[in-house]
Write a structure and sequence with these properties.
alpha/beta, 11 strands, 15% strand
């Protein structure tokens, strides 16, 4: 007889209350996966990541985002100096800061500005983001701005990303003042070709992958508040410490990873929706989408037991999603699982009530309704309740999600730090454009 009972699991610490509702994922199943993890040398590979070992075999290098969390943020006053120069020379009351970047250079800083920057600071600094390749975006974002009062931050690890370079050239033509430009990169030689020298370039290490660059100066500079960013990195560092030393936390992260793989490979749940019921974290699902789909979206390893790698990740701000695509989640025919994120700040608030209610409806259902109104109740749910919404807790949550992703990659036997599929798109786009010349 098939086990259809919803198995619940609870993990709690000072920063998070977690509860999962997953049918048939028993303790016995967990132990089977744990044996697989031991065979995959999970423990030593986690230690390799934190000790600066060779974990990115494709590029023959380490992955240093845990090192950046451990070392803490580096001070850099370049942005502050640019702002002071504009105020001194033009007596401007409000400065425009435009961040040009894509991928991790966009998702990370945007998330931090939305979630950690107090609204009162917007009276002094108007922050905008430009990404993509359509020039209309640049025209719309700069239409009402004064070039003399506008600073551009160009965030690009390689300084070769087509979209970023195109927008950089548009910005230079519009601004006519290279002194108001700052480059954040790990490739200063390439940045130098566009007029950036040591005076207006901020460097980070090539061992920081683009989707992990939120922990580097890419995330630090636009946030502008040193204390907030320091607290954010300390939260990530705390999660790292737990993964190395705390058995309950390790079991929690393993369970997330193991159940992801099991649901995809054996329950055919190929898609997972991530829903944030915290408005300041409305972009968090987009951030996690990149983290997981770029890291785990690889071909299967024929030597491993699992032939399905990363799930399709989508999602958004929960209250909006409820009126957009929840109908499919509740009564549609797709095979989906869900991560729901909320904060226990006000347990009587409508958004908190929605997070709790939707978690139960998706996983358990509504048997007291008429037949035509009944919902599927077949969606495995992970419920993440933050104890509070602050920089430390956000750093802790994001680092924990990275741990989940890294452990999955080890069991799947894939490299989470390369991205050949993304590179293929760049190569063929350039080939198409050169053929048109």
């Amino acid at each position: 007889m098939k086990d259809t009972k919803v198995q619940t699991y609870i993990y709690e610490d000072d920063y998070l209350y977690f509860k999962s509702f997953i049918r048939a994922f028993s303790s016995k199943l967990f132990e089977k996966f744990d044996i697989n993890a031991e065979k995959s040398q999970l423990k030593s590979k986690i230690e390799d990541l934190f000790n600066g070992g060779l974990v990115n075999q494709t590029e023959n290098q380490a992955a240093w985002h845990p090192k950046y969390r451990k070392d803490g943020p580096k001070q850099n006053n370049l942005l502050r100096k640019c702002i002071e120069d504009i105020v001194k020379n033009k007596n401007s009351k409000k400065i425009n800061l435009i961040i040009i970047g894509i991928g991790g250079s966009y998702e990370g800083p945007k998330l931090l500005v939305e979630s950690l920057r107090p609204p009162e600071l917007n009276t002094e600094l108007n922050i905008q983001f430009i990404t993509g390749s359509d020039q209309t975006e640049f025209i719309h974002k700069t239409f009402l701005l004064n070039p003399k009062e506008t600073i551009f931050i160009i965030s690009s690890k390689s300084f070769k990303t087509d979209e970023t370079i195109q927008m950089l050239n548009a910005a230079k033509n519009w601004s006519k003042k290279i002194e108001n430009f700052i480059a954040i990169t790990s490739n200063p030689d390439e940045a130098n070709k566009y007029g950036f020298d040591n005076k207006n370039t901020i460097l980070f290490d090539k061992e920081i992958g683009g989707r992990y660059s939120i922990w580097s100066q890419v995330g630090q500079i636009p946030l502008f508040e040193e204390d907030s960013f320091k607290s954010f990195t300390e939260g990530g560092k705390y999660a790292d410490t737990l993964l190395l030393k705390n058995k309950d936390y390790i079991r929690f992260i393993k369970r997330l990873s193991f159940s992801d793989i099991w649901l995809h490979n054996y329950r055919h749940k190929n898609a997972r929706v991530i829903l944030s019921y915290i408005w300041s974290l409305r972009s968090l699902p987009d951030y996690f989408q990149q983290l997981e789909m770029e890291s785990l979206g690889k071909k299967p390893n024929p030597k491993k037991d699992f032939h399905k790698t990363g799930q399709i990740i989508f999602g958004g701000y929960g209250p909006v999603a409820q009126h957009s695509y929840f109908q499919l989640l509740h009564q549609g025919t797709q095979q989906i699982c869900a991560d729901i994120i909320s904060v226990k700040k006000d347990t009587k608030s409508l958004s908190f009530a929605q997070a709790i209610t939707q978690s139960k409806l998706l996983s358990v259902g509504n048997n007291d309704f008429e037949e035509k109104e009944k919902i599927n109740s077949n969606v495995p749910v992970n419920l993440f309740l933050l104890k509070k919404m602050d920089p430390f807790t956000l750093g802790y949550l994001i680092a924990s999600w990275e741990h989940r992703t890294y452990i999955s990659s080890i069991l799947l036997g894939i490299n989470p730090f390369d991205q050949f599929g993304v590179n293929a798109g760049k190569i063929y786009t350039n080939k198409y454009l050169s053929d048109k010349d």
